[in-house]
Amino acid sequence: MAGKFARSLELAKASWSVVQADKELLLLPVLSVIATVLVIASFVAPALALGWLPVAGVAEGGAGEPGMAVYAGVLVFYIVTYFITIFFNTALVGAAMIRLDGGNPTLGDGLGIAWARVGKIFGYACIAGTVGLFLRMLEERVGWVGRIVIGLIGIAWTLATFLVVPLLVARDLGPIDAVKESAQMLRRTWGENIIGNAGLGLVFLLAYVVLLAIGGGIAYAGISLNLPVLAALAMLAAVVGLIVLATLQVTLQGVYSAALYRFAAGDAAGAVAGFSPDLLQQAFRVK
Q1: Using one digit for the tens of pLDDT, what is the confidence trace for 131-161?
Q2: What's the predicted TM-score (pTM) here?
Q3: Any idea what the Cα angle at residue 267 is, between residues 261 and 273, rounded to 5°?
Q4: CA angle, residues 157, 162, 167, in degrees to nearest 5
Q5: How far apart are CA 264 and CA 252, in angstroms?
Q6: What percentage of the chain carries pLDDT values higher than 70?
Q7: Number of domains in the chain
Q8: Residues near 74 by Cβ (< 8 Å), separated by ≥ 6?
Q9: Can you give the residue range of the structural domain that contains 52?
């Protein structure tokens, strides 16, 4: 475990060295969140007006059970939200690849790469949204054992599609071909070791826990000492800190996926700026 944690820190540092060179990349996750919030608002308002919420009620029986129109609406919602996430992630990965090639990308460069592939991004969003909704519907209809199985299927899908976005950027494949190639690259290179050695998630999990512990402790002290302003400021600072951490995590993961694709595709690992060959080989060694 100690070795895995050490590699996690090294991976975070290597990714951060790339992000430092292009700090504007941090704006892409922010734009993604803003666009997603606007889309959610545009869906929630009419859904509330029509009495279609909560969505979980779709799985429940009764006279008020929504029909196919609700399912269609939820599917559209999934596809649109997936599209926004994938679009900005494509822009992030595209800009990161320019940096890894020794270039100096701008925010417009990344967005231009994503826009040039907007049709294929939409196609992949349709696939991902359909799979996501299908798994969600299954979860609502099975017991706890079934939910565990479906959760494992969801993890397998996430792993199999981990390199889809870099493939869309680097090879301009169609969405179906990108999913197939991503799964093949997973099996061919670092499949069974990704969970144990992909350390960025562990680093940020620790950061989230520490931030919540500090913020929660100060907020509790403020309430205990009858200092509501202190408690409110502590909670506000914790929320802002979580947003900053989440933005940084998404950005680092985008940079990391770009470098990982280069390594998995057989490119010279030493040419990947900010990532030593030994580090990538340890984190993603062939089983």
Answers
A1: 988 888 887 777 777 778 888 888 788 878 8
A2: 0.78
A3: 75
A4: 125
A5: 18
A6: 74
A7: 1
A8: 55, 58, 133
A9: 2-283
